[in-house]
Amino acid sequence: MSYVELTRLSKKYGGHLAVNDVNLAIAKGLLVCLLGPSGCGKTTTLRLIAGFVEPTDGEIRVGGRIVSSPGRSEPPERRNMSMIFQSYALWPHMTVFENVAYGLRLRKMPREEITRRVEAILDVAKLKPLAGRYPGELSGGQQQRVSLARALVVEPETLLLDEPLSNLDANLREEMRFEIRRLHDQYRYTTVYVTHDQSEAMTTADLIVVMNQGRIEQAGSPEDIYKRPRSEFVARFIGGANVLKGDRLPGDAVDVGGVVLRCGSGDFAAQGQTSVAIRHHDINIATAAPAAGETNWVPGTVTRQVYLGSHRDYLVTLRNGDTIRTVTPADIAVPQGQSVWLHLPLEHCRALAH
Amino acid sequence: MNVSISLPMPARRGRIDLSRPIFVVLVLVLSLLVVLPLFWLGYYSFLDQNGQFTLANFSSLVTDPTLRRPFLTALGMALGVGVLSCIIATPLAWLVARSDLPGRTAIRALVTASFVTPPFLGAIAWEILAAPNSGLINVAYRSLFGLQPYEYLVDIYTFEGLVFAIACYTFPYIFTLVVNALERVPSDLEDASSMLGGRLSVTLRRVTIPLVLPAILAGTMIAILQALTMFGSPAIIALPAGFHVITTKIWSLFQYPPKPGLAAAAALPLLIVTVLLLWGQARILGRRGYTTLGGKNSDPRIAKLGRWRWLAIAFVVTVLLLTVLLPYAALLKTALTRTVAEPLTWSSFTLHHVNFVFFEFSATQLALRNTFLLGFLTATIGTAIALVIAYLVTRRSVPGSQVLGYLATAPVAVPGIVLGVGLFLSYSNPSLMLYGTLWILLIAFLTIEMPAGYQQLSSAFKSVHPELEEASRILGGNRMTTLRLITAPLLRSNVIATWCFVFIGTIRELSATILLTTSETKLVSVIIYDLNESGDLGAISVLGIMLLVISFAVVIIANRLPVLGGQRLPVAR
Fold first, then answer.
1. Neighboring chain A residues of B472 at a CB cutoff of 8 Å
2. Out of B7, B11, B565, closest to residue A136 by CB
3. What is the ipTM of this complex?
């Protein structure tokens, strides 16, 4: 049964629809990532769930109870949620211990109980020696862990994270991703995680919700989203793909600017416009023409070639002027300007209906 | 538009949300403070002595030379002050911000000192120094060259003298703005000019000066505005010199027989000029891309003065002597000798004036009590109101909260003397007789100090990241708890600083006070003014020094406050 439910949720700022008719059901204990470019409405959605923003339309239920609807929203302090902010939002006038104890103090817990719980969570977050420090005296990673500890110590039913790793450097970010996932597995709260970084979403999420322009483009497991994109936006945004516009032919074929491509999967429009998506590294490059009768071969000219150590990055211009980007092993070297044949294997070609 | 973007308050079940009633009350209070006096001002300006509608008040502004001339004189004086302040402040600012001149910190501190000095006190100090007969400079000049008693070197009781005496206390406005601007100009902009072959003087002329020009202009406008609306200095210098400026003229219209309608009509153009000047200043500073553009803030380039150093030192010493050191020395000397002209020696040293002021002069005790009571009340109430307004506006907790911000800022455009006229007209009618009580002064001071208090606190609120408050909300703290446990402690030092600022502003106010006090509600600033009329400079000096000492003590306390974890505060958005 789903625990957090967004139904026909919309939020309008002035004339701008920041969140547009979002429907989403999140099962209890799941870690969901809202993924999308900046301005796609993911942070607004999170703030709607937190109760900082009231919806213009639709409603939010948590555990079956309506917590947000236009004109009647519970304030954030009564939702039993925790949130981790992009800025960490650690209070500079309180020590690490006081920051973490804050939520428990508001819950009027006895002093010894507070001390016990705070110390336990500081231990889990490897912060015990820093309990007496002020946030300004901590490194970015340590601040991040304090922020996590402060959010988790109150044992929330729902944990919300707003781009929690965007202020960390690359190494630390990698480490913290697994840390967040580990803590989630340990405590099994329902988590909503907002990020614009697809690899962050891939490593942590049970369910990825790709958002664009206030709408949900696609929701599914990381594998689903990557392997079976349902729209051009998702195909391009996740993992990078070439999308060739074309027209539907009978069967599994699509006419892409005079070349016929057969697609192994995807959704075909009943008729007319259908695009074909294929990942950069799923394309093979050859200098010789294929044997007659072979399908899914496209002729073109190399217009750019970059050596990147582990691989080479090609840009190939087709006869109709479209360009295709492809990645090959580093030892396949084709000079710029040479005519080539690209093989777009059927099993990697995915049809996208419009 | 803004209103619809603001986040609506989450409705709370079973709890009364106080934001809206507080909002309504504050709108009413601020309207009372700002709108009411201006309304009566406009109303009375159309009434003649018998309460009949008339346009005669306005027409006499143009036709009556005794009204027209003070206007023109005041405008000329204000422009003169603007130019002179600019000439003093800009080179000084550059030397302090960008040269290797020794003692730059001390120079800054001394300029701040002339900021803190009430201008009317400075004018009195210059009276002591440069009155044609008894002025210390003239006495020294005569004895040095063995001249006749009627000969003098300088005369403060002239138009030029007035411009000079005011400029001494308005140039810090320009100085502060320009120093800040110079420090913000990224040095790579200047480096780029040098790389292209520009020498120091070229870079200065073609890059640096144009970049800080908005600051110079804006500061000059503030100096002009200050001079135009000032009452104390012109009253002290222009009246003995035999001419009026607009503020002293308005005041004289309240002397017997009072002509409130004419005073109201004369106050309106002053209000309009003030609004125009502020509008111009905001426009100039509004194009801020000018100074804040450019990447990272690198250290400003420091110019080596080389052989110009001595000239620079001479300039700085002259400025500081004229604006701070000589006036202070004159006040101190006058306070401690029996007569002004007597040199200060062991034999002439006397505490007579101190004794007179604190123990013999009956008005002092009352004035001291009134001044500090009003200072304390204004600072406390004013800071509290400004705090709530700043919170409601910056956090947009109520739709339309922006209105409060405008209302709180509006008094900045109302010169003290204009407000004084308005309040007098509002509260001297029989149904609401506040004139003659301390209440009317409290209302005046709250109105005058509201813009500065609000500005300071709203910028403080903006420096507290909203996520700090949201983190508390999501962990279970309601709005009030969050305000108490998170926001208030983070703002504590700003609140105390604002309190001090308002307090100092209040105890030195004269422009509005002069129209609103009676013998029962005298303040220290008014006593100083009265004593000046009777020529008791020794007593004035004692009172003036006391005001200065208190002001500096408060400034120092405000600066020394343990700024709560200053370096710990995370960078705001």
1. 91, 102
2. B565
3. 0.82
